[in-house]
């Protein structure tokens, strides 16, 4: 039982790593290959939700178009995984941003949750949730540290 | 297999409903009874994360103190559940707000993800994530509809 759980957790950590490498490489096909066709995504910006991989792919493309290679900051910290036989989820903090024209780093902290389902033997992301906390008074995103 | 999955999904939906009833009743003990002691919570406001049920309980108490009974709006929509033998997660949209002194309704749409783990035979929330999307230019929370 413990061993099966450890194996599943290792498999999810490998999936998270592989997805992170695709994001850092700005490889849209690599990113999207982790997503189930009927993914429900709650992204940090723009819309309440993105339903289905094609809609979410377009959003990712728009987001990546705003980054320049080599200037993107996308670090994962405090990755926690809860994994069962065919359902799992991961949470993490992400330091996200970029380096401006003047070489100045501009980054903020986000939160990520990814929900996995093993479909036909392959772990796929069926749900993803990114966000930043906001201030209740100003409704402005908070610049907070872990 | 299908039957076990359907049973687990029904159990998670019952947990979500029971949690929702506790929130609507502003019953802090009822809310907290759904959480594992080592919960990692990403709430929509105030902080990046809340680690452990006691820290999260205090945050919930502070949030509930801002609501008056009978004026809270907290509606769940589009609840999706992915459930395995002992790991599951749920996502939902939440219409959240209240009625002001003048009787005027003020509410916005949020997103929720809850991660469940069956511990000693009982489904517990080990991870929770609430958020609202923001505008990338203004960093202001978006007033968006589903």
Q: In CATH terms, what is the fold-level topology of chain A? A: Nuclear Transport Factor 2, Chain: A
How many separate domains make up the residues of chain A? 1
Shape of chain A: globular
Strand tally of chain A is 6
Lateral arrangement of strands in the main beta sheet of chain A: 2-1-6-5-4-3
Radius of gyration of chain A: 16 Å
Give the number of helices of chain A: 3
- Show unreliable segments of chain A: none
Give the biggest sheet of chain A: 6 strands, mixed
Overall description:
The structure is a homodimer of 146-residue chains. The first copy, chain A, has helices at residues 2-24, 28-32, 53-65; strands at 35-42, 50-51, 72-83, 87-99, 105-119, 122-131. Chain A is an alpha+beta fold and 146 residues long. Chain A has a 6-stranded mixed beta sheet with strand order 2-1-6-5-4-3, with helices on one face. Chain A is globular. The interface between A and B is large, with 42 and 42 residues.
Secondary structure layout plus pairing:
The structure is a homodimer of 146-residue chains.
Chain A: H1 2-24, H2 28-32, E1 35-42, E2 50-51, H3 53-65, E3 72-83, E4 87-99, E5 105-119, E6 122-131
Parallel strand pairs in A: 1-6
Antiparallel strand pairs in A: 1-2, 3-4, 4-5, 5-6
